């Protein structure tokens, strides 16, 4: 099969790239015939015979591979290199610059490459000759020569081949016929297919892929593998695309996992030298879960070092989000070892174990020429190695503009350090002078000397591509001019990137017109852009910065990204005149001199170049850009090579002044630096695991890797820094570096609850290399030149350094040259002046507006000359003056506006600072070997920022700080060997930042913080080996900041999702760790708030109950109490608190159980949790103290219910001093058995639903039902209920038991029952019965007498009664009587009725006699008398009750009126009652109305009358 001509695709097919033949002829190479011309073979048939076996093996293997691929491979999948073409974009060489590789794209070469890449390596050359690849000289082994069988059979697959070879080839051809060759060699690349076809194809590819291997570039970008997919780019088309999505993963291979990792290793052809920029165009990167896309220079992806050039983040493990989706973003990555690596990582959101993902990635990549088009004077490339000529960029005379002036390909210029303007680039280059546009875009990037684009306006057309003019730090022009030019450029501009230049001014409204045409417009990192946002972005601005309610839709429509690219690293939103007032343009140096217009404002570079520093300038960067780019060490780096002018005898001085400062020191713990309150404690718990630090390093022959001489980090404004340049220094570098903390903290911390793109702050510092004053003559001359003779003010900073004057100069031994100076407008810097002995001569100096810095003066003994100094506007720095033993002379100094730094001095005390009342910035007392206390700071009441006390070997206490009440930042006390306690801090009330006490080995207690009410940040006490006690008796709150430290960066603009913003003011930590002797931790019971994280661990002598009361205060979410000596159970109230997780590891005496429904995550290795506690009193019956016999189970003695038993029992309470909340944790369990001491029917079971009953709920009832168990209790058996109580400690009370319940489900048996009735005609009767039987016994009988079938009466008698007598009246002859008896068992069941035989009354003569008549007469008489007496008694009593009732009703009416009136809010003061009613009110003349809350209690002792009153007037009652 002949090779197809290579094609180039740009969307659809547009052009045909010249074939190999024409290109070789053009270059003078030997022409070849693509069909393979005949030539003399150099091998003999004898050689063929020797290799037949190898050929058979190779063909068999080829056949098996091909059949397998034909069977399972989706349509159109190629095994190896594609036909030339495809791609498009910036990496495509311009026309005339490429052609297909030798061998073309034949089917045979594809099979061959597939075999080779599969690792077979068998008979490669032979197979290539067999299927038309070409052996030595480009000939087939049996194609031509003197072989007589050369053309014997034109139908043979391989003409002239031996029969054995021909047979194998026939089989191969037959198998090949089953493959859709047209689809395999299709001209349409996979990435141009519709999405559904693309998904289908990618699923098939991923199904074939297993482990690292090579695919065609157009296919390999659709395959995902964590071990790496090798993409080998063709020399004629060194471009490619990557596309992968969750649809492919879900329907393809890989299984269900909680993360996805895809790695693509892109190998460029050898003609592309290392350092060539690869443009990576991220067309789309979307994910609904945390995702990260990184691009590395080279193949190393294990470490995010300087090889990392692109990092796009969507969310992270702690819930932060930078952008939800990235679209049309271009980044640039240099090649290393001819490769780049692209890695995609997708993970689930925190707490989500689902394996479902939703993501999509689509990007393009390709190389850029450093300068294209080249000019006539551009040096020609040296002669390339054989076979590489076609791969070099075309020469100037090989490029032609189109008739319409369009430049084929793109225009590019990068890493050019000599080209300053576009006109300079175009000068003498007709291609650029006559150009009207480009086919594929403009790339002008990373040119440190590039200053002007004047002349670029000739470009009026970009047919299809981006405009990237970025990372040119000296490119300064009004942004309005830039946008006006862009609005005049026609064509399809895919995106515009103008970041990291020095554009300035207000963004014009025409920006909105441009944004309608171009979906991506990046103006970020141009610090001098200012003014209001254009109207088209006002809605987004309101939603983002003002909580306008559209924030979610802004994210979804990518408006958030557009706004971020307008707002990040700029001053947009600030008035432009404010920028002028702040001195941002023009920039003033530290000494008040304005920098020249256009001076370097250096910032960070995404491409990682080392910026060059001028003599003076400004360095700016902000947190958002650093966070978004995730810059490497060389991204924020600035260097000054020390030249001749800075290596003179007197040297020079580098001065750094900080206007704003912010570097990240949180390590992901929280938003911005809030977790550590902006102070770097160099502690992994507060600042870990990675921090950004600004360093100053010097390099010379000794320190070839650099020596760090300055470090600053956090949010607090550092004091100025001064460096005396030693003549040996070769360079000075400033770097923003990532620093790992000493150790990793293993404590689980609560994660942020917000999704946010934070702008935490920025850094702005001015630098200047200054020639110092080194002789007395120079100092005198300088003062005379700049001193105002009227006011005595010197209008410049004074820098005295390197004063080793010999020969012509006079040594500076004092400051007598300042004898007439009253004020210095700037800094006073005196450093490295060994001849200086004192400050004598400066007695008239009253004020220094900026800083006073006295450093490294080995002979300085006294500063008495400062006796008149009253204020320092900046910082006071005394550092490295070893012979300075006191501060006498500063007695009139009352205020320091900045920081006070006392470091590495010979001071014995701070006496001399007795007048100092206020420090606006930081107080740092570091490495002073002789200081023992703070005596001398007796009037100091406030420190505006942090107080740092470190490395002071003799410091024993803080005595002398008795008036200090407020610290505006943090308190950092570390590594003071003899610090015994905190005496002197008894009056400290509040600190806005964090408190840390680390590694002070002699510290025994910190009880002196007796007045401390509030700590705004974290509170950490750790590794103080002698610390015994921590007392905070007055503290009210820890961990809730209400304000920012005074010297924190004020600009804290944040992009927040205001619909879902959570309060993070408590995102701090309370920690007490590794204090090996700590026994007492006492925190105020009145504390109202603690931070999210509570950590008390590894204090082996800290014992007692776990401090549950603290964990329920405030907002604690994560608690760790591991490896102390705590004991006792878990407080059940904790399950209802804010605590999400608690760790109790290593507390062996933690015991008891936890409520089953407790949602809290509990980790308790090496404890006795869920086991009974020791020495704990079990719950006791509440009635035990009254009558122990009442503590029993009450259940019926008999029951007819075979499915249930209802019982009651008394409540229990705790008696062991546990917190009252533990009473709520008492649980009850019951059991049932056939013996009072056995639970052989139902084992002990927790009672879940209990009903309170009895007086005041002192009893509890429960019904045990076995109906759902499909069993019944056995009739005739007695069941006993056993109950006990237990608490969470596991202590169980003794059992109480019922008296037994007999189950009887049968009514009394009447089989043998009989009833007899005897009735006399005069009235007496008798009923007798017998024969009733029941297992539970007879409770009672119901006996009824019937007359003529109707019941006359029914009488109930006890169950042991067997007869009943009675008398009847009015018996008539012939009346029929009968009786019936019903027995009721002890279980409450009634028997059937048993009736007697009907009877008729009979006479009884024994009942009559004469005495009856006499008795009747007497009885009648007595009855009459009795009746008369009774009537008289009742009449008299009725009259008396009537009188009492009338009296009571009168009282009730008065009471009713009074009560009703009072409850209606009336009284005598309300004047709502008549005067005669006033006395009837229950309130006196001074009473209040009811609505004035005067309490009243009404007591009614007459229940009947009260009831009547209620009936009469319910409302009043």
Task: List the main descriptive attributes of the protein structure presented here.
single chain, 1517 residues, alpha/beta, 15-stranded parallel beta sheet, eleven-stranded parallel beta sheet, 24 helices, 84 strands, disordered N terminus
Mind explaining what this structure looks like?
Helices cover 16% and strands 26% of the residues. By secondary structure, the protein is of the alpha/beta class. Strands 36-38-40-42-44-46-48-50-52-54-58-60-62-64-66 form a 15-stranded parallel sheet, with no helix packed on it. Strands 35-37-39-41-43-45-47-49-51-53-56 form an 11-stranded parallel sheet, with no helix packed on it. Helix 3 (52-72) packs parallel to helix 6 and helix 13 crosses helix 14. It is elongated, with a radius of gyration of 50 Å. The N terminus is likely disordered.
Strand coverage percent: 25-35%
Bin the helical content. Answer: 10-25%
Biggest sheet descriptor: 15 strands, parallel
| Approximate shape | elongated
Tally of helical runs: 24
The end-to-end span amounts to: 112 Å
Determine Rg (CA atoms, Å). 50 Å
Helix/strand structural class: alpha/beta
Unreliable sequence segments: 1-157, 175-187, 210-214, 317-323, 384-391, 547-557, 580-588, 644-650, 1043-1060, 1405-1409, 1466-1492
Question: How would you summarize the topology of this molecule?
Answer:
Layout: E1 7-10, E2 12-16, H1 20-27, H2 45-50, H3 52-72, H4 107-117, H5 124-130, H6 163-176, H7 181-184, H8 195-208, E3 214-215, H9 217-220, E4 229-232, E5 240-245, H10 246-251, E6 259-267, E7 277-287, E8 291-297, E9 308-314, E10 325-334, E11 339-347, E12 359-367, E13 371-372, E14 406-407, E15 411-414, H11 422-426, H12 430-433, E16 437-438, E17 442-445, E18 461-470, E19 476-478, H13 479-487, E20 490-497, E21 502-506, H14 510-517, E22 521-522, E23 528-530, H15 538-546, H16 551-556, H17 559-567, H18 576-581, E24 601-602, E25 611-612, E26 616-622, H19 623-629, E27 637-641, E28 652-660, E29 690-699, E30 707-712, E31 721-725, E32 731-740, E33 756-758, E34 762-770, H20 776-786, E35 793-794, E36 798-801, E37 823-824, E38 828-831, E39 847-848, E40 852-855, E41 871-872, E42 876-879, E43 895-896, E44 900-903, E45 918-919, E46 923-926, E47 942-943, E48 947-950, E49 966-967, E50 971-974, E51 990-991, E52 995-998, E53 1014-1015, E54 1019-1022, E55 1029-1032, E56 1037-1038, E57 1054-1056, E58 1069-1073, E59 1080-1083, E60 1093-1097, ...
Helix pairs in contact: 3-6, 13-14
